[in-house]
Amino acid sequence: MLTSHERVLAACAFQRPDRIPRFDSFWEYPDTWRRRLGPPAALSDLAIWIPDETPFPTSARLLKEEGGWVYEVDGWGRTIRRREGAYFYETLAVAVPAGVDIDTVHFDPPDLDLRFTRAQSEAGEGDLAQARRQHCVFGKTGGPYLRSTFVRGEAQFLMDIAGDPGLARAIADRVADHLAGVGVETIRRCGLQETGIWIYDDMAFNTGPMFSPASFEKVFLPAYRRMVAAYKQAGAKYVILHSDGDIRPLLDMLIDAGIDGVNPLERRANMHPAELRRRYPRLILTGGMCNSDTLVNGPVARIEAEAREIIELGRDGGVIIGTHSISPEIPLAHFAAYHEVCQTYGNFAGGKA
Q1: Residue ranges per domain, the chain?
Q2: CATH number of 4-50+105-345
Q3: pLDDT tens track for 148-159
């Protein structure tokens, strides 16, 4: 029986693992789930280790609490307000509004110690040694599109891409170079050379990218080339891209930039694992289970069929099964059915075929 580390790396190398590797993250994990399924750490083979990648961590501060709202400046330089316990927040101001030259804005150094003393797994665990004992650990940074919207504002940055692509590229380049610096330091400090790093960069709707392939090539592709090259020069074996939505129009360019795999493969966005495998036989596929329809609505037979399709794709490696995330809308019975299929049919060393 392989460890999670060995299992994930076998799959990434397109070698048959002992069973299908898994990667799921949970918005919440009630006691009823724990009693039936055990601890959440036992349900995933992979953990993402997250440093503080923000450009201004030393400037983050609480402003005030008023009328049930919390007002603060975050590490992205945004003034935000939020409700206690809420998942989302409202952005009131950004670090680089219209009229501000990105070259005049000074980011905190990428190798700042506090970035790494604050690091934790995606599940909120803060012990890297413990994460390594249970999982195959990869690092994480954001990517040049989404993180540029954090410092510029989403609407303004999309207008920059359309109306002033030179300016948009200058912002994306500056952000990407900062993120690459943090990522390289993460690889070095955490010893992630055998695994690598994930770039999280949501840049698509369910119907396609938020900008044209021509805009991606002009504004973002140079930044992606530099980021991936920096990570691999630092020793990262694999660089995986996480993006929601339908990124198929960009995939050839991303692979040419050095991306080794993609996640989460949302079926509602036509990112079907079987179709992607036919087109890209050496692309690492992570995800594929539909968390917005199949796992929410069932029935169990449909859940089983979808999971078995992904498992069969991964029989000779190249696949890590999972979802985008597990939200409270997914019934325990439906997740348990998916879990049972992985347990029963995902055992390549001796399970059912």
Answers
A1: 4-50+105-345, 56-94
A2: 3.20.20.210
A3: 999 999 999 999
